[in-house]
Amino acid sequence: MKRIQAASAVALAMLLGCTTAESQVATPGHADPLLQPIAPDYAQRWLGPQDPVRVYGNTWLVGFEGLTVGLIKTSDGLILVDGAVPQAVRDIEANLTKLGFSIRDVKYILSTEPHWDHSGGMAALARDSGAQVIAGREAVQSLLQGRSTDDDPQHGELASMPPIADVRGVRDGETLTLGDVTVTARATPGHTAGSMSWTWRSCEDGLCKDVVFAASLNPISSDGYRYLAHPALSESFRRTFAMVRALPCDILFSSHPGASGQDARHAAFTRGEQPNPFVAPEACRAYADQYERKFDGRLAEERAGIVD
User: With a threshold of 0.85, does the pTM exceed it?
Assistant: First the structure.
């Protein structure tokens, strides 16, 4: 995830970090505190409008050119994956409406990481839907307090976000069943200690595909952070690369589409190319390989003393 200036983060913390999501309800004549924009000029680069699209079977995209928001339709309601930023919430809800759904149909909201660009809109989405937010256990505290904990490699340079009133933590391998769909949590720590990827099966015309919504694998950090000084997180990052590489993976989504080539596949899909460009069984392996090389480069720079 891209960094913003620490001064901006402090200002946002003062604005957003002082109340719980339960108390952040708009009153007539007052702005909705859960929808106050975070770093609007910076975030705008991610929020290019994108029509909602059914990718395969029960799986849809309802987000933006630079921020992925996934939607799973089950026989007992909807599941959202990630929540973008507060200023994007009304667009996400409008995309659901375009598809004939309602925000009140959403029963679960799954988090890939406790950063403002992917979880900043969750407090409002959870309030509007009544849905349960679910995240990796190590991400729960950040989401509840609306700011990063000190084990985050980007701690100190992240904007605060609206705290979420209720977050359920899950461990690697735990499953969540809603109606006829089962989603599996896959812990993928590294970018954050609590990063969680999500997998499910999607079927169409009798053919079923394995879908992976992967958390970020980018080894970005605040100035002064050293992965070499945090061997436990570095080792878990290595396990994450291996696990993502080995996942059953026919369709890959990443939290930022450009990180995995999802943006190019989406463009080809929009052009009507066949077979379905989103079906790319090599995508998870390529995604893990790309960011493990980047991680290797980062560690080499740390050893050479050339990292800020």
Answer: yes
